Fold these 2 entries.
Entry 1:
Amino acid sequence: MAVSKDKIRNFCIIAHIDHGKSTLADRLLEKTKSVALRDMTAQLLDKMDLERERGITIKAHAVKLNYVAEDGEEYVLNLIDTPGHVDFNYEVSRSLAACEGAVLIIDASQGVEAQTLANTYLALDHDLELVPVINKIDLPSADPDRVAAEVEDVIGLDCSEAPRVSAKTGVNIEQVLERIVKDVPAPEANDDLPLRALIFDSVYDSYKGVIVYVRVKEGKIKPGDTMRMMATGAEFTVVETGYMRATLPEPCKELTAGEVGYITASIKTVGDARVGDTVTTVENPASEPLPGYRKVNPMVYCGVYPADGADYENLRDALEKLQLNDAALTYEPETSGALGFGFRCGFLGLLHLEIIQERLEREYDLDLVTTIPSVVYKINLTDGSMVEIDNPTHYPDPATIASCEEPFTDAHIYAPADYVGAIMDLCQDRRGIFKNMDYITPERVDIHYELPLNEIIYDFFDSLKSRTRGYASFDYEISDYRKSNLVKLDVLLNGDIVDALSFIIHSEKAYSKARKIAERLKEHIPRQMFEIPIQIGIGGKIIARETVKAMRKDVLAKCYGGDITRKKKLLEKQKEGKKRMRHFGTVEVPQEAFMAVLKLDDND
Amino acid sequence: MKPIGLYIHIPFCNGKCPYCDFYSVMPSEEKIDAYVSAVCKRIDAADRIYDTVYFGGGTPSLIGAKRISEIMSHINRTPDCEATLECNPSDTGALNSDFDFGIVAKSGINRISMGLQSANDCERKSLGRRGGCDDVERAIVKARAAGIDNISLDLMLGIPAQTKESLKGSIEFCKNSGAKHISAYILKIEESTPFYRIKNTLALPDEDETCDLYLYAVNELEKAGFSQYEISNFSLKGYESRHNLKYWRCEEYLGIGAAAHSFVDGKRFYYERSIDDFIGGTAPVDDGEGGDEEEFIMLALRLSEGLIFDEYQKRFGKRIDKDIIEKSRELEKHGLVRVTDNNISLTVDGFLVSNSVICNLLGY
């Protein structure tokens, strides 16, 4: 059913984490009667349990709403929900590119936060019309007037007509819908041009194959057409087109310019329908793709191993399935002397890593050991060539290294002014380079630092939260590579290098880290038949050492009157206990010892 | 038919020592009679010939010399059969003040094993042993007068308040008593015993002290002429316990009595820990196949002679796994194992961590 193009509004909702994005989306569904009340579960759009639990949106979602406005006209509102984390910045930008407007939610007590600004700038980059909404007015600490002033000051956005709502209680939600209808422009759309549709998300469905979510910019597409992905060149015959409804998809005859909908075409992997790519038809191809496509590259890598080697195949199957749905996840087999067979996985960032790890453990019931995350280093060799290293194991012989480079980020931290000292301490400690500091309001500051990525991929956010009692927010983007004095630390047990524990670190921090690792290992490695030296070295040089003393006694003094089975069982019990041990030559290291080292953080 | 070993469990004690988790109950004349006749019936039914016999308990001496002698009369023995009777010296005096070593000697008993545990009466008391060590001395004199010269004493290591000095005293007692064989066990606090519940109040030596006591005992016993032939067993030359050697060499034995374990015709089985079931004629419980390579290695490594390659080859018709020898060489560097062209054996330090060593060698 074709709606007049001037009645279409394509918009997304942007907000800092926890400012109520998903709750507002739910209310909009409810007000437009897109969902029967009995089908409402809190935060309908966050489909994964993990999303609901963590309160963040991991995947983009979209839904078509019908709304009869105060002017008596019926409008089609396409809401595109965006991922809520810096790791998924690129996906956010593609979702924004599919819209003409954005609802910007600001928490009525917390005001402007790091991602409020980051998302605002992103939206302005895409020429979106911004609709500010002040949320959570039901909170006792809410101060909508102050926050409105803050938004006008900091962002320069007129808030005089900004709806003041409570997504939680449902107060003033109609005002949001009215502002969307009035402020967000209708799409400029021409059905007669060759098809160009932007992919802003794709999900794998075991029955239909990949479901491609698109915004049709120009032209139209219908079942039977042959679609072509302009970046990857892949071609498919369209099986179905339709609109996303809150609970069920609604197939349609065709998708036309200005509309948001889905296409299925028996596509096997999401890698063939990458976010940001442009869909055209083979029958009437467009000459140029839409701007802005890029292949997202993993920024953070780590080894993922099954705790029980027998689960290797299961882990591979699980990664394969996750990758069907997550083009940004990469993995390839690797072998570690310490951990056996596993995979080197690439992630967009630490959150992405954590999510994948949690999904593997939860949805696939796998027990995992992960190595210390690593960023991608560029190593310039003395012969003039350059290698990129995402795995410390591949670190070249130091004698052949001319220089090393590591990725840096541009980072902004927003926090109450009281915490400036604590934040700066943390950033200095993480080798940050102070750029500047702005007072957003007399009480709130924006601290701008350049920070090495390898200092923030691990527990930086946790440390920040704990030092600021949760008041600080943080946002970063990768800026450039810089020369840095890096070294590779090796852990030796009984003289042998344990590859899984090696990592690359700035030389300034090598000594203190080495000492901590040695102490941790000593605490967690049980006494064994003989003394075990723990050494931490850089190249051939040992910089820290501890010793696990030898165990002296574990004898069954008496072999009970011919009860050999009993003795055998006792030994077998010991054998069971050892299953969770990793073997290095004659040394046995319990899983916990690995975890203890991998989880070393600032507070240790 | 090849002679095998015979173990007879006599599960009666006048009291329970607080560290002991062997199966035993309080005796009554009727129960004892019923039990003895059940034992004899089973011996007759088995119809085997034995080259070692071992009465263990419990307190076998408690049932009296006549009943021992009666059981012995049902046992078909080789002429050189070693027949051991465990005695509790205080009970041989108390319940049966007339315990007659002459009768048992005549029935064929030629070896006596007594639980001395310690020659220090304070230590004995803390272990709940009834009677003093002079009872042990008197019993030895009686046994020897009856012509039983092959006497073994049990010592215990790592008992509450034990010191090297007190241990030295106990070893000297053994030496002077004329004993031919010493078993020296490290006290293990078993979960089902009273000691377990009060272990924190016992002045138990710690792990290091216990190890030192063990090493000290090995050394002192060696000096007194008792050479170590198993983790916990020592003897004068030629006085090794032939019956116990069967366990460690993975040879066969029949166990009769409640809670007794057997290894016969390649099968392991045992009787439940219940006198009434045994008297009632309940069949033993199947405990699977026995005597495979792993078992053989695990047991052989308890012995000072260790795992003898020829013996292994003779038994299994194949060479010992190279992997085991390689691992042994690794452990040899740490002084836990000795490897020669003929055998692998544990050192005294290796004995102390024998569980780990054996697990390591077996690739557990």
Note: DSSP finds 16 helices and 15 strands in chain B.
Entry 2:
Amino acid sequence: MLRILSWRLFTLVPSIILLSIVVFLALHLIPGDPAVAYLSASQLPITEEAIERVTIELGLDRPVWEQYVSWFSSALTMDFGTSYMTGEPIVEEFLFYFPATVELSVWAFLTVILFVIVLGSASAYFRKTWVDYGSRLFSIVGASLPSFWLGFLLLYVFSMTLGIFPSGNRGTFAHYVLPVLTLAIPYIAIYSRLFRTSLLEVEKLPWMFSARARGLSEKTIWIKFQLRHGVLALLPVLGIVMGYLLAGTFIVENIFSWPGVGRYMMNAIVQRDYPVIQFYILVIACMFLLINLIVDLLQAWLDPRQRHQKDGVKHV
Amino acid sequence: MIKRTYFFVGMSLFFLITACSSGSVKSETNELVIAWPQDIGAMDPRGYGASQMFAQNLIFESLVQYNDEGEIEPLLAEDWEQSEDGRTTTFYLREDVQFSDGSPFNADDVKANFNKVLDNRERHAWLELANQLQEVNVIDEYTVELTLSEAYYPLFEELALVRPFRIAKEVDGQYVGTGVYELQQHDREERAVFSGNEHYWSHSPEVDRLVVQVIPDSESRMMALDNGEIDLVYGNGLLSMDAIQYFEDQEGFEVNQSDPQATRTAVLNTNRGPLEEESVRHALVHSFNTNQVVQDVFYGTEEPATALFGEHVPYMPSVEPFDYDLDYAAQQLEEAGWILNEEGLRVKDQESLSLSYVYDANDAIQRTVGEWLQHGAGQVGIAVQLEGVDNQAYLNAQKSGEFDVIYQETWGAPYDPHAFVSSMRIPAHADYQAQLGLEQKAEIDQMINQVFITTEESKRTDLYEEILQEIHDQAVYLPVSYTSTIAVYHDGISGVEFAPIPYEFQLEKVKKNASDS
């Protein structure tokens, strides 16, 4: 088990290095000049001399490969440089903004799990009734609304018209409701249908038949067999959802004025803050890779068949 | 049964929380809440980049300031005198000033702050004063003397700027100032709370607590203002034109706009193609319907411009505006030999009259101005091609002069007119490139040089008048509109005023009525 784990961690290294090169090159290819962005954010006159001075100050006058080598060698010592705009170390800034994003994503994640299981099993249990049709309608609408639109819609109804929830910023419990819902609704919409389908698929399997033959109560069958297998099918997908939630807070953080990394990244893109963008993409990529790893491990733990297979014992 | 109890408890908890949270949405009466799209950044008087000028201005003061008429008046310096040659200026400081931590302010603070600017001269070189300033001497506790390398008349204008020549003191790694507010609390990327400086030497703010709420999205700002979380939205471009229109129609809101600040123009290149002819330039400026553009594009939130600078700008002579007159425009073209062909285009010597308009493709206003220019010019037979390019290419076109017409804004107070006119001599500016075709270009540059070193006020006025009149008569600039700062606020708010400089918000004068709660 440990051997597999360390091997998997080791294989991540070349992909991360390759990714950093691609991102570095891509950043220098997009139009727009960080020096100009810096000057205009500072309300300074954009003259040729000023651009030249800032370009040298930011070290952007050197050839791209030289910039990459110097970035890479300091990255090895965990020094990812300073932001062009604030001059602060990026790791520190990132760690400052990251907790707010994690907070938001974790709440959204829990909301997704709760509603997917409730909605999915309800529509499987009561299939072809109004519960099922209602949840299907919700899924179609929820999955097709773009999140910025959903966010504004929620804001318009609950904040502007009804005045129940504040329009943004952190603070009380009420501040969480709208951003968490905006983040969670699209995923609930998609995965509650998926969960329903996998529950129904389990029903057709032979051991369900034998469980019934053994005279187990429907309740036991539902909880111990059907639901457990359904959750198992959901697990790898949920891992990806967590990744998407962490990386997909851009729009929500902007609409609801949430002080997280999504907004930090958004500003960095507008201001062409190369080192910040570079660092963010690497962190998110590593996070996805790690989450995948964790999901694999969890799956092995929950499903004895897989665990034993990897240890070389075959079950028929 | 148990399940049902859980469900019931859960639901009632949810409703309880929702009920508690409602009503807390509105702002408190004893504080003024404004919205700003980003964090105020580091409060360093010499900080650029993320540091927001309006916030720096709340905390730090300069030796002199602009008054409402755009003239220089005393602030931390009570009085001053200049030497004969204009190189040395002695400032007499106020003696009753304290920093917000209670420590006294004196000439040493001025020297320490200005020396920090000089230590990083490169960084502040965009401002000519940073290059001109040679020495700062403390004469006595409340007297300080500045020595420049030449007599540089915009000394006072540049001292008044928000950065870098403001006065601060470092206390425990934080800068404190002598300004009307002090920074009380700063939750990065969420809010900044300012409170009145209790050691302030002049009037305290009307509302003691000022909260700057960070709201990056303009639609969210609009909703926050609408439901009362925000009292006031103050600043340029913070709300969309549609949102401003909405609040104008909505009861319970005021929309207020400042006097004109900077000018939106289209620069005509006198050194390229058909625009080398003065009559073609005149035809173009007279075919542009400024009043209509202001109504349709800006919903009347900006004033139509009549010249490169409005009459509010110092030294700007009063000039004859270019009226919208298609007949006059057509007549100008006819007289210059541009004949209308059967496709409705002007032709001379088998050459058709066609111009390019270069603009930054990401800026919707620049494009709309181009469309109106195209429309007006089309009516008199001038074809205009719109060339939307990325920001970098737009700046390159300015530098190289590769444009017939290009969109440009003036810099606004306090840079207009002196810093703007000064840049007309520099080849990397669109203004220099566009004026190259003028017979009098060398003469104009000569006059600009004179303006900056003459010590006689009357002579300076004459020179400016001659320069600006000449440029106007030659129709180098097509004036579009004057930008202004917009404030939208609830009825309970009063005393909203505008300073002549866009980033000096006079928030200390804003009052909030208790009835608004």
Note: The first strand of chain B starts at residue 31 and ends at 36.
